[in-house]
């Protein structure tokens, strides 16, 4: 039987000690570093912290993440938290950008991962150039359950994104092809029933959340993604991505 590991998800910005020391103190078994790819102007401590984790004997891997993009931060953290759902997942909210901290907190609420904040001993004005040095305390932050979109809703948004909008009839056909619950798990007596199922289980909730627009075009209804829908899709596309 596999023994659960303590897995720490840690954005890599311009921190050093606040990345490594909390993981060591909290006895992390594995670390996943979220690294911003474009570091031309402001190199991070990515290589340094990897070397320090090697010296501590802590397994680590690095994945790409735009720590300055809200929705990429949510999506990356949530996808990793889901990947390690059988383990104890912790998320460091102090080591990336403010955007990543907010996105990471939302991802924790959606997945049940544990967020924590690290207070440094010394900050920039008191150091020799680092953003922060040492750690004074580690605080586990409270979270409140947040309902993430249903996978079938994400699948429909993904289809709308790929097709640049679609008719309701197209969405019903897609639902049948993709075996989505709104149509696959219910008996529709006729075509009118299929439309009702689509409206009540998919388009109604998506429209209520502001994720889709519905426009009457002749005798058909055209469905398209809103900007909010596109952003939500970016954050939660991992729910439908195949391994």
From TrEMBL:
<feature type="domain" description="HFX-2341-like N-terminal">
    <location>
        <begin position="6"/>
        <end position="123"/>
    </location>
</feature>
<feature type="domain" description="DUF6293">
    <location>
        <begin position="140"/>
        <end position="236"/>
    </location>
</feature>
<dbReference type="Pfam" id="PF19810">
    <property type="entry name" value="HFX_2341_N"/>
</dbReference>
<dbReference type="InterPro" id="IPR046260">
    <property type="entry name" value="HFX_2341-like_N"/>
</dbReference>
<dbReference type="Pfam" id="PF22665">
    <property type="entry name" value="WHD_DUF6293"/>
</dbReference>
<dbReference type="InterPro" id="IPR054162">
    <property type="entry name" value="DUF6293_C"/>
</dbReference>
<protein>
    <submittedName>
        <fullName>DUF6293 family protein</fullName>
    </submittedName>
</protein>
């Amino acid at each position: 039987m596999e023994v659960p590991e303590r897995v720490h998800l840690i954005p890599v910005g311009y921190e050093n000690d606040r990345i490594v020391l909390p993981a060591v103190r909290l006895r992390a078994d594995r670390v996943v570093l979220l690294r911003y790819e474009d570091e031309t102007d402001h190199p991070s401590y990515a290589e340094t912290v990897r070397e320090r984790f090697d010296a501590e004997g802590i397994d680590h891997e690095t994945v790409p993440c735009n720590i300055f993009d809200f929705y990429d931060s949510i999506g990356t953290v949530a996808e990793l938290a889901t990947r390690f759902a059988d383990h104890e997942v912790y998320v460091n909210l102090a080591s990336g950008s403010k955007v990543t901290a907010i996105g990471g907190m939302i991802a924790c609420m959606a997945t049940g991962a544990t967020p924590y904040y690290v207070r440094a001993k010394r900050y920039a004005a008191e150091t020799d150039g680092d953003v922060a040095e040492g750690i004074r305390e580690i605080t586990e932050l409270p979270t409140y359950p947040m309902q993430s979109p249903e996978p079938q809703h994400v699948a429909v948004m993904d289809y709308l994104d790929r097709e640049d909008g679609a008719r309701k009839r197209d969405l019903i056909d897609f639902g049948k092809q993709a075996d989505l619950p709104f149509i696959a798990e219910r008996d529709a007596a006729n075509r009118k029933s299929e439309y009702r199922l689509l409206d009540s289980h998919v388009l109604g909730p998506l429209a209520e959340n502001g994720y889709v627009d519905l426009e009457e075009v002749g005798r058909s209804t055209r469905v398209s993604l809103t900007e909010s829908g596109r952003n939500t899709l970016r954050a939660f596309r991992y729910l439908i991505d195949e391994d």
